[in-house]
Amino acid sequence: MLALAAGPAWAQTPTVQAVESAPVYEDVADLVIDSPVIVDATIRSAARIKGAEAAGVAPGHTRFYVEADVAALIRGTGAIPSRIGWLVDVAPDWRGRTPNLKKRRVIAFARPVAGRPDQLQLVTPDAQRDWSPALDALTRRIAQEAAAPDAPPVVTDIRNAFHVPGALPGEGETQIFLKTRDDRPAALSILRRPGEQPRWSVATSEIIDDSAAAPARDTLLWYRLACFLPRTLPERSTAALSADDAEQARADYRFVIEQLGTCRNGTDASGGGAPT
C-alpha cells in the first residue's frame, strides 16, 4: 500500500492537466509559493492503482503511482533522492484514452512525505505539469523572487487610508497602509496633479517615495497586490476621514485596482485572505 502524507482530499488526488497552455504567472506563483519541493523530472514508470487505493478518483480519470528520475531540484531545502515517486490522477486525452506517462518530462510542485524521503505529494490537482521551456523559466524566476531577502511581503488586508487635498482643485495625495503577514511596512501612494494622469506607487519600507514606479505586471510584488487586495476599500479604513476625503480615497483605491488588472488565478480578492 502506498502511504502518503495526510491532507485534504484534493491534495491526495492530484490531476494531470489534459492540455498544457502558455503558463499564467498567477497560477504558477500559487504553485511555487505552496510547494516546499519543486522538481524537474522524467517519469520512469507508471503503475495503475485500482481498488481501495483508487477511491475518490474523478469519473474517467485513472490513478497512477509514478516513479521519476530527478533532473533538477528547482526548489527545496535539502538533498532529494535521484528517483522519487508520487500519486497522480490522469485525465483522458483528446481521444478519450489514458495518456502514456512513461518518459514524460514534468515539473512536479509538491510537499515532502514525513519519513519517506523518496516520496512526494502533489500540492493541488494540477500540480504535475508537462515540462516546457516557458514553464521551467517562469517557475525558476518566481522561486528566485520568493527566496530573495527583499521579497515583497504577503499582503493580508488594509489598515487605514489618508487623503490630503492639494492647494489647487484636483490636486491631492492618498496613502493607503497595508497589513502584511510579518508586519513589514507596505503602503500605496496615489498622487494627483491638475492636468496630469494620476500616478501611483507602492512602498515596502518605512519611506514612501513619490517618485517610485508602480510594480510591473507578472512580478511577485504585482501578484501580492493584484491577487490579494480587496476589490474595494473597506469602510473601516476611512472612518477617521471627512466624507469628501473618504470618497477621494475610495476613488484613488479604485484607480489602483484598475491599474493592477485582473488576477487570472481565480482568487477572490475580498480582503483578509492571505496567500500561504
Query: How far is the N terminus from the C terminus?
Result: 31 Å
Tally of individual domains: 2
CATH architectural name of the largest domain: Beta Barrel
Strand percentage lies at: 25-35%
Biggest β-sheet strands, sense, barrel = 7 strands, mixed
Give the total of beta strands.
11
Q: Summarize this, please?
A:
This protein is of the alpha+beta class and 276 residues long. Helix content is 20%, strand content 31%. The chain has two domains: 12-147, Beta Barrel (OB fold (Dihydrolipoamide Acetyltransferase, E2P)), CATH 2.40.50.120; 155-260, no CATH class.
Structure, described:
The chain has about 280 residues and is of the alpha+beta class. The chain has 2 domains: about 10-145, Beta Barrel (OB fold (Dihydrolipoamide Acetyltransferase, E2P)), CATH 2.40.50.120; about 155-260, no CATH class. It has helices spanning about 10, 25-35, 135-145, 220-225, 245-260; strands spanning about 15, 35-50, 60-75, 85-90, 105-115, 115-120, 130, 155-165, 170-180, 185-190, 200-205. Strands 1, 2, 3, 4, 5, 6 and 7 form a 7-stranded mixed beta sheet that branches. A hairpin with a 6-residue loop joins β10 (about 185-190) and β11. Mean pLDDT is about 85; it is low at about 1-15 and about 270-275.
Give a quick set of tags describing it.
4-stranded antiparallel β-sheet, 276 residues, elongated, alpha+beta, disordered C terminus, OB fold (Dihydrolipoamide Acetyltransferase, E2P), single chain, 5 helices, 7-stranded mixed β-sheet
